Amino acid sequence: MDLSLLLDRYGEPAILASGGLLIGLTFGAFAQQSRFCLRAAAIEFVAGAPGAKLAVWLLAFGAALAGTQLLALMDLAQLSEARQIASPQSLSGAALGGLMFGAGMVLARGCASRLLVLSATGNLRALLSGLVFAVVAQASLRGSLRPLREYLAAGFTSNEIGGNDLLAFSGASVEWAIAFALAWIAAGIFFTWRAGLSPWRAFAAIVTGLAIPLAWWFTASMATQAFDPVQVEGVTFTGPSADTLMLILSPPGGALDFDVGLVPGVFLGSAIAALIAREWRLVGFHDGPSMRRYLAGAALMGFGGMLAGGCAVGAGITGASVFALTAWVTLSAIWLSAGVTHYVIDGERARKSTQAPAQATP
Predict the structure, then answer these.
(1) In angstroms, rounded to a whole number, what is the distance separating the alpha carbons of residues 20 and 17?
(2) Between 243 and 33, the higher pLDDT residue
(3) How many CA atoms lie within 13 A of 148 on its CB side?
(4) Which pLDDT belongs to residue 53?
(5) Does 34 have pLDDT greater than 60?
(6) Kind and range of the H or E element at 28?
(7) Could you give the CA distance from residue 101 to residue 99 in angstroms, rounded to a whole number?
(8) Angle at 31 (CA atoms; ends 62, 218), nearest 5 degrees
(9) Residue 110's CB: how many other CB atoms inside 10 A?
(10) Which helix (H) or strand (E) holds 218?
(11) Least confident span in 166-180, 230-244, 261-275, 324-338
(12) Strand, helix or coil at 283?
């Protein structure tokens, strides 16, 4: 993709931010329409009742993996330059952060991307939780929680095992990675058929996943054509949410980049999709305990996501799509923690509610 004319006319920061905005619009609109949500998929899986929500996640995940590896096969993106592969990553942070993120995701009833999408549809619970998530993420990145994050992240790093490239460790080819990704898509198609998922939601789930390779392709193109260094990256929300918050709070004229365009793009895309589908409506907290639950979950996700090096999308899908070992560790930890947290907290509540009528009967 030749961007030289646009770069000469508008400058690198504006083009980077515009690309992030457009990719964010795509992700936000189709994530809203597909109801893409890792928490919902994990709960279906743990409950032993796989259905439409799991199908949506599998389709998006498989599409992200397949699309990203096709870029590598066609030499359209230098994935070896991705942060998850090119720089040392924390395995201890991936495990601990993933466990914290998974628990927080269940408490807040949605991961970071889901909160952003829901907040754009009028969900005030998600909006406040998302703000808490961004504040804690910023404190973990550059503020008062940074020393604790760095201490936990220093426990065990990818340097100690010789790198973070899972494909290189296993000796697997790009063709094998594509076949592996197609297996996930096949699983998604099976559960789509089994759950009776509408073709539109299935299509929206696939496009949601394809936003990740689209981001890899765009930033890789910018990296080869821009004068200043550009980070090759996919879609993530922990760091970008923190950066976007600081851009809003800082004086005008802050630096523009891909991440700063991404978060507003997701918000706008979700809002537009909700308005067109007439699904925009205000939703608030039910009571004090539920509010405490949401905010505690958001705080756990903010710190856990920064410790793990990404959120359910940033590490769980974007990092996994380049087969970064730490990303797969984080994704596994998120699924495990989400399942246990749901069983202990919401599962116990559901069991009590079903037992109450029986106990009240003489």
Answers:
(1) 5
(2) 33
(3) 12
(4) 96
(5) yes
(6) helix 12-34
(7) 5
(8) 70
(9) 29
(10) helix 199-225
(11) 230-244
(12) strand
Q: Interhelix angle for 124-141 vs 146-153, to 10°? A: 70
- Mean pLDDT over the full length of the chain: 91
- CA separation for the pair 55, 156 (Å, rounded): 34
> One-letter amino acid identity for 63?
A
Global pTM?
0.92
Q: Is residue 348 within 8 Å of 116, Cβ to Cβ?
A: no
- Mean pLDDT value of segment 78-101: 93
Q: Which residue has the tokens 């998120």?
A: 334
Q: Which are the contacts of 236, defined by CB distance < 8 A and separation ≥ 6? A: 259, 310, 311, 313, 314, 315, 318
CB 298 within 8 A of CB 237: no
Q: How far apart are CA 338 and CA 47, in angstroms?
A: 12
Whole-number Å distance between alpha carbons of 322 and 161: 18
Residue 162: how many CB atoms within 10 A of its CB? 9
330/318 Cα distance (integer angstroms): 12
- Which two three-digit tokens encode residue 201? 């939601």
Residue 255 CA to its chain's centroid (Å)? 23
Q: What is the spatial distance between Cα 340 and Cα 102, in angstroms, rounded to a whole number?
A: 9
Whole-number Å distance between alpha carbons of 168 and 181: 17
DSSP 3-state assignment of 229? coil
Q: What is the pLDDT of residue 91?
A: 95
Give the number of other Cβ atoms within 10 Å of residue 27's Cβ: 31
CB count in 10 Å sphere of residue 108: 27
pLDDT band for 354, please (50, 70, 90 cuts): very low
